[in-house]
Specification:
The complex is a heterotrimer. Chain A is mainly α. Chain A has one domain (34-261). Chain A has eight helices and two strands. A two-stranded antiparallel sheet of chain A has the order 1-2. The longest helix of chain A is centred in the N-terminal third of the chain and has 23 residues, at 34-56. Chain B is an alpha+beta fold. Chain B folds into two domains: 3-101, Ubiquitin-like (UB roll) (Roll); 105-244, Alpha-helical ferredoxin (Fumarate Reductase Iron-sulfur Protein, Chain B, domain 2), CATH 1.10.1060. Chain B contains ten helices and seven strands. In chain B, the strands form two sheets. In chain B, strands 2-1-5-3-4 form a five-stranded mixed β-sheet. A two-stranded antiparallel ribbon of chain B has the order 6-7. In chain B, a hairpin with a 2-residue loop joins strand 6 and strand 7 (101-102). In chain B, helix 3 packs antiparallel against helix 6 and helix 6 packs across helix 9 (218-235). The longest helix of chain B is centred in the last third of the chain and has 18 residues, at 218-235. Chain B is elongated, with a radius of gyration of 21 Å. Chain C is of the alpha/beta class. Chain C folds into three domains: 5-249 and 395-464, 3-Layer(bba) Sandwich (FAD/NAD(P)-binding domain), CATH 3.50.50; 255-389, Alpha-Beta Complex (Flavocytochrome C3, Chain A, domain 1), CATH 3.90.700; 474-599, Fumarate reductase/succinate dehydrogenase flavoprotein-like, C-terminal domain (Methane Monooxygenase Hydroxylase, Chain G, domain 1), CATH 1.20.58. The termini of chain C are far apart. In chain C, strand 2, helix 1 (18-29) and strand 3 form a beta-alpha-beta unit. In chain C, the strands form five sheets. In chain C, strands 7-3-2-11-18 form a five-stranded parallel β-sheet, sandwiched between helices. Classes of the chains: A mainly alpha, B alpha+beta, C alpha/beta. Chains B and C meet through helix 1, helix 2 and helix 3 of B and helix 3, helix 4, helix 10, helix 13 and helix 15 of C.
């Protein structure tokens, strides 16, 4: 018997009650569908663009600029100078981007913010708050495959490694086309900003916030980690913003390298 | 400043019912609850509505206004266009007792499953010492006024009534997080959060946070950290190994 | 007649606020099968509205504090009309009750050394209020609620049933307390209740009934109280053969919201002033400096400069007069408004925006910030609030034995919290309410459990039950009768007009005439529809309670020919040492009530000697002072 709200009924049984029969799937009168629609379009544009570029397998390197989609360039097919890595002997037709993109895409795919946005915009689960979703059954993230969302932290660790590499790429971009140091171009600036935005995105991640201090019970016993946790928490408040900025900019960075590498524009050097 | 509004109020007993139309006077500065009370006092004396403080502090007058889960006492009439109908329905997720009053006992039953605060056995009242920074996280969750709008809005149960067996709702999960972050609590409720309270049903779509009248960051500060804590226990092989071979102590 | 559920318990607690829950916890811990009957959902009681804190002399912030200082502040605040023994027990036991909450999971704000932080409040000499921002009441109710659940979990482990030893009946209102026997044998035998949701009746057979039903504010139009505050506990105690003490003392909190009209009366916490907020009139003057009464001249600053220094250096400066006891501040605001120096909507200005940085305001007064932003569209970090007095608390209440909280005149009947009287004298200090709930809630629970053991189980006759049912069903047989909402609203307006913050003989007499008319109308009240969650029916059943209590207030107010604390007579403006020796006791009689004078108990030597004789001379008669002097000589 549900003693808390309804003590007893005349027949000694809890009264039979049902939810209100309202019929329509929502009574919201605002344009609640705008937000998921915008998200859907923006994410789709990114997916289309990155797929196109990932399979292109060309125009991703122009000394000293390398596209973030293709760094680190792991294949023997990579142009000389594009990689400090020991290349893997992959078929020439295989785009090295496909090896790389798994990790940043996995990081974004399991990201707590992106999960919200694509569950809402793509899967409509739910499309908006207090708007009924179209599915008959729902088990959330309790089963395969979505239970693997819990591995987000590993993608975060991988993401950190990529940030380090892209930062390295940005630093070596302080060279001219002939490989001499002490020069900077628009491309350098683009790579620097790209790396910075990715750092902001990674460091504002919920898993980062947890690892840095969130898992502690007593902050006062770990003053340094507490300090870092408060910084990360501040960043975390803007995680969504960093997610979008960094995503758009990583595509832009790739596009800039594409334009330069394909000879459509010249990479302007400041000095 | 006084005008006549068109209200559509869901009326019925035990779930069967319909929207009924009322024309009712509205004065400057009033909230939806004032208008409902006017309907009650002048037109429909038996209109059922649950309320107490009328100041957003008790969380009794939860309902859905133009489809949005809200407290009636905190929804000002000047947020609506004069003349446009205002629709007020009971919370959808909970069974109806009558009119706008729902049976929210589900939340209390689930809440009762969460083991209570357990301080160290040898710690006497009066000897508790805690730093402000250590209590702040849980303090945020204790602002909860138990209006249950979060659980009402969560699609995991709202759109899937069968899930009430497996999912305790944001309110109760936040309570679990609150205890897990309490600096002097000695129990580990992580496995329970995942296996019995259904944390995995949360797909962090944040509607709980959106409707919280106390502006608690339920998703970012309670549910996601709780998911991460559960991951520490259940889904992180490295930490599992670390705990096995005691690389890390229980310093956390 | 429909079937009625009958249940047996050892202890019934009516009310699930701070006092009720604390009493229930005590009774269950004493091994008694306990029921908690709550008019609202579990955890919604009016205690959640308390903002400032719990007064307890833990001395965490200023180590000079101790129970004696707290006792003196309480007596001073109550203008020495308090029952000294209650004030003593309260001051002594409050710290333990607060620490206990912490052990049950409460998370108070902390001092730098990790103890419970304490804040300043009106009338308290030292920072004394344990608090959580400005939502202390919520923290307290949630902690007690969770303690009840913790006990239920223990019972589940031991007996296999959460409800084995302590059961919560939410949304269940008591309409009648059963008593049997006459005179000294008069004792409790249970309670008659209706489940609001289903409309079904439940009879509780129990030897002990604790009334923790809160206050009476819903009999006034401008009030900070919720619909629950109908004085039903007061009224049921009277009808059962108990008595009410000093009901004329009604606290009007000085700072309630005044605009918009729909929120008029909602509380603005005293912490706003404790944290630096100042009161100004339409001329921009900090008028409270003009209203420091002689009895408080020694404790309050004379200049704005000194008052401002106090916030940072309280040891070497006197406190600002904004922190005078509530009755003084409420009267001052009332006077300013009547003199035409009020704010546009009939209050005065309370400004914290020029005194503290915006982020500090939001951190220290978060719910005030939200309240004004969302209800009045006022940003208190940028502009002043408009505030005015609002009916907040009744100092008077059920007359009880100070140690056991047993109602005078009825065995097995107990009262705790706002529904009981005596503790606060003529005026309650802020923060003393929450501690009162805890201290006397526990005492009532302990005593009720002990009495239940001695008394054993009780049974009720079918005739008694049938009579209670008939009474509860009466409004349905009158469909087409008087509208209960209309009667209630008119009663509230009348009480505000005639028995409000400033009273006169003529108006009080007029109030009594009006109350007679209301009684006649209430007898004809009718409701339509079914019994399921029918608010009209609920109000119809509350009306007689409200009328009984209103009559007690008006009669006692007419009887007391002086001004003191929460009772201000325009025609008797002075405080009288002779009247300080008098309690006014209200009894049920016929269809109404009568009020009798009763001598106040004498304060024992060891307590009265805590005060300066010069201070006592402001309150006491020469004869009293002489006998005290002889005692110490």
């Amino acid at each position: 018997m549900s003693s808390v709200t309804t003590p007893v009924s005349t027949d000694g049984q809890p009264p039979k009650r049902k939810r209100a029969e309202i019929g329509v799937k929502t009574l919201r009168t605002d344009r609640y569908w705008v937000q998921p629609l915008v998200t859907f379009i923006a994410l789709m544009l990114f997916v289309i663009y990155s797929t196109w570029r990932a399979f292109m397998n060309a125009d991703y390197f122009y000394e000293p600029l390398i596209s973030p989609f293709y760094s680190p360039c792991l294949s023997t097919a990579c142009p000389p100078g594009s990689s400090f890595w020991t290349p893997l002997d992959l078929p020439v037709a295989f785009s090295p981007a496909l090896l790389i993109l798994i990790f940043p895409l996995g990081f974004r795919l399991t990201c707590y913010y992106y999960r919200k946005s694509y569950y809402r915009a793509f899967w409509q689960s739910p499309p908006a708050c207090a708007v009924a979703e179209p599915h008959g059954k729902y088990t959330g993230e309790t089963r395969f495959p979505l239970i693997f969302q819990n591995a987000h932290r590993y993608f975060f660790y991988a993401g950190l490694a990529f940030n380090a590499l892209l930062t390295y790429d940005a630093i070596i971009a302080f060279r001219n086309h002939e490989g001499q140091w002490g020069h900077a171009s628009v491309g350098t600036l683009v790579l620097i900003l790209n790396a910075a935005f990715l750092w902001f995105y990674s460091l504002s991640c919920h898993s980062c916030r947890h690892a840095i201090g969130g898992r502690l019970k007593n902050f006062s016993k770990h003053p340094a980690r507490y300090k870092m946790w408060t910084w990360v928490s501040k960043l975390n408040g803007n995680h969504m913003r960093y997610a979008w900025i960094s995503m758009v900019f990583v595509a832009f960075t790739d596009f800039y390298v594409y334009l330069v590498a394909s000879g459509k524009i010249t990479n302007f050097y400041f000095f | 400043m006084t005008y006549t509004a068109n209200f559509r109020v869901w009326r019925g007993i035990g779930g069967e019912g319909e929207l009924q139309d009322y024309t009712v006077e509205v004065n400057e500065g009033e909230v939806v609850l004032d208008v409902i009370h006017r309907i009650q006092a002048t037109q429909e004396p038996d209109l059922g509505v649950r309320w107490n403080c009328k100041a957003g502090k008790c969380g009794s007058c939860s309902a859905e206004i133009n489809g949005k889960p809200r407290l009636m006492c905190m929804t000002r009439m000047n947020t609506f266009e004069e003349g446009a109908p205002v629709t007020v329905t009971p919370m959808r997720t909970f069974p109806v007792i009558r009119d706008l009053v729902t049976d929210v006992s589900f939340n209390y039953e689930k809440g009762r499953q969460v083991p209570a605060f357990s301080p160290p056995k040898d710690l006497k009242p009066g000897d508790f010492r805690m730093q402000q920074k250590d209590v702040e996280r849980s303090q945020e969750f204790r602002k909860c006024i138990e209006c249950f709008l979060c659980t009402n809005t969560c699609h995991a149960v709202r759109d899937h009534e069968e899930n009430v067996k497996f999912f305790a709702g944001p309110r109760v999960l936040m309570r679990t997080a609150e205890l897990d972050m309490h600096p002097l609590d000695t129990l580990d409720r992580r496995r329970m959060a995942q296996d019995e309270l259904g944390l995995g049903y949360c797909n962090i779509t944040k509607c709980c946070t959106e409707v919280c009248p106390e502006h608690i960051h339920i998703t970012d500060n309670a549910l996601i950290p709780l998911k991460e804590r559960v991951a520490d226990l259940k889904y992180d092989p490295l930490r599992w190994l670390g705990n096995k071979i005691r690389v890390r102590g229980k310093d956390d | 007649m429909s079937q009625i559920t009958k249940l047996q318990f050892d202890v019934i607690v009516v009310g699930a606020g701070g006092a009720g829950l604390r009493a229930a916890i005590a009774a269950r811990e004493a091994g008694k099968k306990t029921a908690i009957l709550s008019k609202s959902l579990f955890g919604k009681a009016h205690t959640v509205m308390a903002e400032g804190g719990i007064a307890a002399s833990m001395g965490n912030v200023n180590s000079n504090d101790n129970w004696k200082v707290h006792f003196c502040d309480t007596m001073r605040g109550g203008k020495f009309l308090n029952h000294y023994r209650m004030a003593e027990l309260h001051a002594k036991e409050a710290p333990d009750r607060v620490w206990e909450l912490e052990a049950w999971g409460a998370l108070f704000d902390r001092t730098p050394d990790g103890k419970i932080s304490q804040r300043n409040f009106g009338g308290h000499e030292y920072p004394r209020l344990a608090h959580v921002g400005d939502r202390t009441g919520l923290e307290m109710i949630r902690t007690l609620q969770q303690r009840v659940v913790a006990l239920q979990q223990q019972d589940k482990a031991e007996f296999g049933d959460y409800d084995a030893m302590i059961q919560v009946f939410a949304e269940t209102s008591v309409s009648h307390v059963f008593v049997s026997g006459e005179g000294a044998d008069r004792k409790v035998s249970g309670a008659f209740a209706y489940a609001r949701g289903t409309g079904d009746f439940i009879v509780f057979e129990a030897p002990s009934v604790i009334l923790a039903t809160g206050g009476i504010g819903k009999s006034f139009k401008v009030t900070s109280n919720s619909w629950e505050y109908t004085g039903d506990g007061h009224s049921m105690a009277l009808i059962s053969g108990g008595s009410l003490v000093n009901m004329e003392f009604v606290q009007f909190h000085p700072t309630g919201m005044v605009w918009p009209l729909s929120v008029k009366g909602i509380l603005v916490t005293e912490s706003v002033r404790g944290d630096g907020g100042v009161l100004t009139n339409s001329e921009g003057r900090r008028f409270m400096f003009d209203y420091i009464p002689d009895v408080f001249k020694a404790q309050y600053a004379k200049t704005e400069e000194e008052a401002d220094r106090w916030y940072t250096d309280p040891d070497n400066n006197k406190r600002p007069p904004e922190l005078l006891p509530r009755d003084e501040v409420a009267r001052a605001i009332n006077t300013e408004v009547k003199a035409g120096r009020g704010s546009p909507h009939g209050g005065v200005f309370l400004d914290v925006s020029k005194r503290l940085p915006a982020d500090v305001i939001r951190a220290k007064l978060p719910s005030m910030w939200h309240q004004f932003k969302e209800l009045a569209d006022v940003d208190i970090t940028l502009e002043p609030m408009e505030v005015g007095p609002t009916c907040h608390y009744v100092m008077g209440g059920i007359e009880v034995d100070p140690d056991t909280q047993q109602a005078v005149g009825v065995k097995g009947l107990y009262a705790a919290g706002e529904s009981s009287g005596g503790m606060h004298g003529s005026n309650r200090l802020g923060g003393n309410s929450l501690s009162d709930l805890l201290v006397f809630g526990k005492r009532a629970g302990d005593a009720a459990a002990e009495y239940a053991s001695a008394a054993g189980p009780v049974t009720l006759s079918d005739a008694e039950i049938a009579a209670a049912e008939t009474a509860a069903m009466a409004p349905f047989s009158n469909a087409g009768g008087e509208n209960p909402y209309a009667i209630q609203q008119e009663l509230q307006q009348m009480m505000n007009d005639y028995v409000g913050i400033i009273r006169t003989e003529d108006e009080l007499k007029q109030a009594l005439v009006e109350i007679e008319k209301f009684k006649e109308r209430a007898a004809r009240v009718g409701v339509k529809g079914t019994r399921q969650y029918n608010p009209a029916w609920h109000i119809a059943l509350d009306l007689p309670h409200q009328l009984v209590v209103s009559e007690c207030i008006a009669r006692a107010a007419l009887g007391r020919e002086e001004s003191r604390g929460g009772h201000t007579r325009d025609d008797f403006a002075k405080m009288s040492p002779e009247w300080r020796q008098v309690n006014l006791i209200c009894y049920a009689e016929g269809t109404g009530v009568r009020v009798e004078k009763q001598a106040l108990p004498t304060i024992p030597q060891e307590l009265v000697s805590l005060f300066d004789s010069s201070e006592l001379s402001k309150y006491m008669t020469q004869a009293e002072l002489d006998s005290i002097a002889q005692g110490t000589a």
